[in-house]
Amino acid sequence: MNKSDLIEALAFEKGLTYKKAEEIVNLIFQSMTDTLAEGGRIEIRGFGSMTVKSYKAYTGRNPKTGETIEVKPKKLPFFKVGKGLRESIDN
């Protein structure tokens, strides 16, 4: 499922126009992005949680040339699957 599939499913299930469903989905995604950008945590019971993990700088290697490079520190989103989702997929 991709974003447009989610929008179509919402529009169909709730009898909304495609444009209104798109606004709702975009609002949810933007709220989640803003929360993570501010260093917050998102938890959806039964589905999972998302946090931002910080990684320190390190010396890496370019696999194509073998040259060593300095990789800057970075922050990346991290998703931890919830028990309900894990169990429903496992069964």
Automatic annotation (TrEMBL):
Signal peptide: none annotated. Gene3D superfamilies: IHF-like DNA-binding proteins. This is Integration host factor subunit beta. GO terms for cellular component: cytosol. One of its GO terms (molecular function) is structural constituent of chromatin. InterPro entries: Hist_DNA-bd, IHF-like_DNA-bd_dom_sf. Keywords: DNA-binding. Belongs to the bacterial histone-like protein family. SUPFAM superfamilies: IHF-like DNA-binding proteins (SSF47729). PANTHER family: DNA-BINDING PROTEIN HU, INTEGRATION HOST FACTOR SUBUNIT BETA. SMART domains: BHL.
